[in-house]
Amino acid sequence: MSKVRVLADHVANQIAAGEVVERPASVAKELVENSIDAGATRITIEIEAGGRRLLKVSDDGEGMVRDDAILAFERHATSKIRVTDDLIAIGTLGFRGEALASIASVAKIELTTSTEGASAGTRVSIEGGRMRDVKDAAHPRGTTIAVRDLFFNIPARRKFLRSEATETFHLTNLVTHYALAHPEIAFVFVNNGRDVVRAVAAKDLRERAYQIFGAEFLENLLEVDGGDPQVARVTGFVSAPRDRRSSRDSQYLFVNRRFVRDRMIGRSLSEGYRSILPYGVYPAALLFIETPLEEVDVNVHPAKTEVRFRRPAAAADAVREAVRDALARNEYVPPPQIEPQISQSQAATAAVSYTPPQPRIEFVHPPPSPAPLPTGEEIARDIEEMLRSSSVKSASPLPPLNSAERLVREVTPESLSTNIRPLGQLEESFIIATDDEGLLLIDQHVAHERVLFDKYRALESERRTESQQLLVPETFDLTPAQAAVFDQLVPELEVYGFELMRLSGRTVAIRAVPADLPAAEARNMLSELLETVDAEKKSSARETLRDEIAASLACHAAIKVNMSLTPEKMRWLIDRLLQTSSPTTCPHGRPVILRLKMRDILKGFHRI
Ligand code: ADP
Ligand code: MG
């Protein structure tokens, strides 16, 4: 008996919905993209209950006539492409013709739409993929789509939705992205009846970024303007090196105004900061890459959040060098060296791919001149080559110094004696000390972090936290995404001695901070915490959240590296460290103390 069957349309649509509709934010993405494609100048997004109960997008775009409004819900129904060749250069955000069909198969939809000058508009109602009703309805030019009860017919999918706070966070992020990508469009975002974003049409990205993030965010950004229109023009903003993030969450990347998550661009961005930002620390960025349409393939991923560059290496170079150039213009890195005699047009290209400033190595063979613009990989190869050739040349090979790495070990709590004597500092960052077993190196910052973490946790559990009132309250602006988690974080922060007040809109005043925390650090700490704390954790694991706050407080209040310490201060720090719950690891899990054993020292000097 035959067993292969063609799936019914509604099943096929639900399967497609699995790829396109992951959560309310992905529905909003498709609807907002449709509005942009329809030429809207104003888009309003309203949500209730994290978008599960209601997600409504209205626009003033070109709208649809009745037949189109019905057909739009068919799978593979699109007005944006016709033939395969159209796929080579896609100028619209949508093109797959499956978003509306997919969404309609897993929710209850009401679409109301009208075209310019039409005598009547149309309302189409669909539930779980079944057309319920089509009738005339009044609507100004444009389209309103209300999506209700997402996944009402697929309980298994509904279970995967996270808390209202998390879904709202994703939705806010999404609206922020599209608002940034389209400054010329007015955006309104309303959550449970409350305005979260209300941005009128702006004249450029700078003005839009100001509307969304506030003046302070912009002040700290460097403008990027580079690349090559033939391959990839790169514009936008990146953060100054002092502004560090522990995740890529503050990186907003767009390719031809399409928001993407692209590892390659992220990596090139980081490469732009090489040698000025340590590994694991990320800059904030708002980067727009514009390429000729045929330079990118956007038909890679059903949700269209990934793209494939036709010339990935050239695009990567353009991003890296445009970022490097922005840093150089602001004197964070030496300016690129451009050959003096080149013409205007060559200069434009040279600005894209200038010779990176010479790293602190000498090339064994000076590169031929004019230098063939080395890439990161080439430089790495050069260094390797140099190291190889120099070790071959040295007559009596010395044991490589890094053999010490094998001898220096993390100190375990059991082997820690109380008999630690500080001798001095290394690079004003590490305390050099001895104990009964040998030589110790103590990372002063993380040691103090551990001391403070234990202190904050103890005070909090005894309800004895102390705070210091600020003479002049510090104010700062929340990003929309931060605002979404702020209210829930406040009670927890107050436990530690913060006094925070929401002023108008997204501005927050810090009126008091925990004892020991320098007022200047409070702002950094809060904005970092608001970015890293998972919205989900707030309700579920209060202890985890309190640990996270204590760790962040400890990190910001702790003495820094590159700070000279008196012998008394070192003594004090070591004594306090030894009294903590875990003197050998910091709250983030890094080692605090390294030891070089006496036995290994003697062995190293061939004394045993
Ligand atoms: P795609 O965007 O890939 O074409 P969709 O399923 O998202 O597919 O939409 C199907 C079609 O419905 C679109 O091609 C467009 O013609 C029409 N459409 C959808 N949303 C709107 C809107 N907000 N305004 C005008 N037309 C729309
Ligand atoms: Mg679409």
Structure class: alpha+beta
Helical content stands at 25-40%
Count of DSSP-assigned helices: 20
The CATH class assignment of the largest domain is Alpha Beta
CATH architecture of the largest domain: 2-Layer Sandwich
Sheet with the most strands: spatial strand order: 5-4-3-6-2-1-7-8
CATH 4th-level superfamily of the largest domain:
MutL, C-terminal domain, dimerisation subdomain
Oligomeric form of this entry? single chain
Say which molecules are bound, naming each kind only once: adenosine-5'-diphosphate, magnesium ion
Strand percentage:
15-25%
Radius of gyration: 29 Å
Main β-sheet: number of strands, strand sense, barrel status?
Answer: 8 strands, mixed
Mean pLDDT: 82
Could you characterize the architecture of this molecule?
The protein has 608 residues and is α+β, with helices and mostly antiparallel strands. The protein has three domains: 191 residues, Heat Shock Protein 90, CATH 3.30.565; 110 residues, Ribosomal Protein S5, domain 2, CATH 3.30.230.10; 203 residues, 2-Layer Sandwich (formyl-coa transferase, domain 3), CATH 3.30.1540. Helices cover 37% and strands 23% of the residues. It has 20 helices and 23 strands. Strands 5-4-3-6-2-1-7-8 form an eight-stranded mixed beta sheet. Strand 1 and strand 2 form a beta hairpin. The chain is elongated, with a radius of gyration of 29 Å. The N and C termini lie far apart (82 Å). The structure holds adenosine-5'-diphosphate (ADP) and magnesium ion (MG). Adenosine-5'-diphosphate binds next to helix 2 and helix 4. Magnesium ion (MG) binds next to helix 2.
